[in-house]
């Protein structure tokens, strides 16, 4: 009987789908390794109803570079847990939050495709299937250099704290960058 659970968030490789001019998309770390977590710590957090059960949120940096100014949007493609989160196998989930964007060194905002409110946000959850556009003040959305903070919020189910075996928790997926010619 093991008293530990191995928690590794094998998260996120990055890819780019750019039209006409090449763009690159990089992520500061393609793996978040929570290491070996004592089951006692998971049980204590579950008993106190702590979301994530012993796993703190982590912040990564996404960076996109294009040869010429492009309208930029991000999407994460991975196994879906529910309308707001991705699967963290075997039974957990992960929420992703985009925040603190800059486009060509200037503060940028997010707009979620398909939402009619047109609200610009400095932070927005990245939900399954959702495309999030990046804009500068005044609605201009073209740029060459995008930097975004990505907050990764894992959550384990209460049952994870009662495991008797070593378990490896994993999330797979890929970021997609859409880079289009402005006004097209």
Automatic annotation (TrEMBL):
Keywords: Signal
Domain of life: Bacteria
Annotated signal sequence range: 1-18
Name the UniProt record assigns to this protein: Fimbrial protein
Organism: Chromobacterium rhizoryzae
């Amino acid at each position: 009987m093991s008293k530990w659970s191995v928690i590794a968030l094998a998260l996120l490789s990055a890819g780019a789908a750019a039209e006409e001019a090449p763009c690159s998309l990089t992520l500061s770390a393609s793996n978040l390794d929570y290491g070996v977590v004592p089951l006692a710590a998971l049980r204590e957090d579950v008993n106190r109803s702590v979301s994530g059960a012993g796993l703190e949120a982590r912040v990564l940096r996404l960076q996109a570079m294009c040869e010429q100014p492009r309208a930029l949007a991000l999407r994460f493609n991975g196994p879906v847990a529910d309308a707001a989160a991705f699967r963290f196998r075997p039974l957990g989930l992960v929420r992703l939050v985009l925040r603190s964007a800059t486009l060509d060194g200037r503060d940028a905002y997010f707009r979620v495709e398909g939402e009619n409110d047109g609200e610009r946000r400095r932070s927005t959850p990245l939900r399954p299937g959702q495309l999030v556009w990046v804009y500068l003040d005044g609605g201009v959305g073209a740029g060459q250099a995008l930097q975004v903070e990505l907050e990764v919020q894992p959550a384990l189910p209460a049952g994870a704290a009662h495991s008797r075996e070593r378990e490896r928790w994993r999330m797979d997926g890929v970021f997609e960058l859409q880079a289009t010619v402005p006004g097209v």
